[in-house]
Design goal:
single chain; mainly alpha; 77% helix; 293 residues
Length: 293
């Protein structure tokens, strides 16, 4: 490695997370430089990088952005890779980090709304309603067009219905996207067969089916709980479906541009088929039918 790339790799964790977080495109992978730093170094170096980026963000961001960024960087960039180093188990490390992240966010949310003298659900309703009104006031805003087509009340109901699963899926993707990029950037971090051998635990099918069963309650609270829960489980079966696809592409030696095009097609067009592939793998074990890795 040349002198410039070496220097860049050393200073990147102290600058890039704050810059990434400020951009809508790269916010999800803003913990990546700290994630890689934690895998390679003592955790105190990661905390120093986290503090430096937090200081940068304080200078240009709002308090809510700063708090969210620090929690995201710590949970995804420090705790998650640290648990991977200690346990060697990816799924267990993810589960612990994800539950702690969710607990911290929910606890902070409840505390904050209590201080405001509002119920937590009322707070979200107010935020969503004011957000819709603010975006609708922007000229040529897509939200304004949606309001004209659906009506504000219908759009508000749709957002409130989709919001819990949307937030959870975003959080899950943040963990796994950082893991994916780190596995590509760090040689020897994960085994070559990890992404092609990923499987969900068998017990996961039962809560997924239970959530689907709640659809029978129609337009009631249980229906919306089941809807959001089922969507969250589907993202894990999407991971498994993509893992099966990765295995098949490796088995038939489809690499390079062809592999990229097939994955792009699978993610953006054929995702329902990918999810079905992952879900029914529990019973059909598609990789076994095509030979073990």
């Amino acid at each position: 490695m040349g002198a410039f790339p070496l220097i860049l790799s050393r200073i990147a964790p102290f600058l890039l997370p704050a810059l990434f977080f400020q951009s809508a495109i790269f916010a999800f992978i803003s913990p990546l430089p700290i994630f890689i730093l934690t895998l390679r170094n003592h955790p105190r170096i990661s905390f120093l990088a986290l503090f430096t980026n937090a200081a940068l963000l304080v200078a240009v961001g709002t308090p809510s952005e700063w708090i969210l960024a620090v929690v995201l960087w710590f949970m995804v960039g420090v705790l998650f890779p640290l648990l991977i180093r200690k346990t060697g188990k990816i799924q267990l490390s993810f589960a612990i980090s994800f539950i702690l992240f969710l607990s911290l966010i929910c606890g902070s949310w409840l505390t904050y709304t209590h201080q405001l003298g509002m119920g937590p659900v009322d707070f979200i309703r107010n935020q969503v309603s004011s957000g819709i009104s603010e975006l609708a006031s922007v000229p040529n805003s897509p939200v304004k067009q949606l309001i004209e087509e659906q009506g504000k009340n219908a759009l508000y109901k749709q957002i409130m219905t989709e919001l819990p699963s949307g937030l959870l899926i975003t959080l899950i993707l943040s963990f796994w996207l950082n893991l994916l990029f780190a596995s590509q950037l760090l040689r020897g971090f994960l085994s070559k067969t990890f992404w092609a051998s990923y499987r969900n635990p068998e017990w996961m099918v039962w809560p997924a089916l239970a959530c689907a069963g709640l659809f029978a309650f129609g337009d009631h609270a249980w229906y919306y709980i089941g809807l959001n829960g089922f969507k969250v489980f589907l993202i894990f079966y999407a991971f498994q479906g993509l893992s099966i696809l990765s295995y098949l592409l490796s088995r038939y030696k489809i690499l390079g541009l062809g592999r990229l095009l097939i994955f792009t097609l699978a993610v953006f067009i054929l995702m329902p088929i990918v999810i079905s592939l992952g879900f029914f793998d529990l019973w059909f074990d598609f990789r076994r039918k095509f030979g073990q890795i």
